[in-house]
Amino acid sequence: MDDILHHDKIQLGIALGFLIPPVLVPNVEDMEKLAYHISIMFFMTAGVATALFILVVIVFKEKPPYPPSRAQALIQSRPAEEYSYVQSILRLLRNANFVLLMVTYGLNTGCFYSLSTLLNRMVIHHYPKEEVNAGRIGLTIVLSGMAGALISGLWLDRTKTYKQTTLVVYVMSLLGMVVYTFTLNLGHLWVVFVTAGVLGFFMTGYLPLGFEFAAELTYPESEGTSSGLLNVSAQIFGIAFTISQGQIIDHFGTKAGNLFLCSFLLLGSIMTAFIKADLRRQQANVENEHTILGWKWYQELWRRVGFHHK
Fold this sequence. Notes:
This protein has 310 residues and is mainly α. It has helices at residues 2-24, 31-59, 70-77, 85-93, 96-126, 131-159, 162-183, 189-218, 223-252, 254-273, 280-309.
């Protein structure tokens, strides 16, 4: 759940990224005015980034007073020379279920990155002079995704159905992408808002689910290592998809470009179905509870035997 809340904070920043630039940089023909507005936006970004850097240097500590998870507690309990980051990565890459998840996560997130990057271009192609609304559509995708991530997190905490939830959200992302693809050119901007919101609810909502599922599949490895590999996969697929979809849009149009993403979401859905629900973290929690209950039972038995002996 902590990963999901952390992800929602990141998505809030992305949402502001969709909303603010179209307001600060209007669509004007004068190149000097355009350059002026862009420079203002960059100076504001630099100021915020500098302030955040200063806060990180002053406020952030090297590590929390207590381990944030059981995996981190196990790592910190070992001597530093026994832990190897490289060996941890190699163990993860030998984990077939995690490798499948890493690829499927990259496919889904890569589609999201490509869609987000080219969203303004696709919307303006069908709805000229709607730069501000294009930013608002991006905002809708992210905000609905934050709601989807929060709801998915609450569902996971209650049911522990990691694979089932991940698979359902993945398939719904595919369906949402298909609906968005065939409604983008209908000529009604409100329809785009609705379909983009539904797509964002599932596609953006899937992103933190991948981190939670990875933590289950890779326990007791560090969650930071598995999350890092997921992000590497997402960046690689995101770059490849953005370049490829951009070229497809140039030559064949927006529908062909979006169908390109749909094909990879379909592939990712099929691959997700083959991931085994090897919930190692949950199993460790169950074993720990059994150990605690067994120890309490032993103490109670010893107390009663000792009492009767007297």
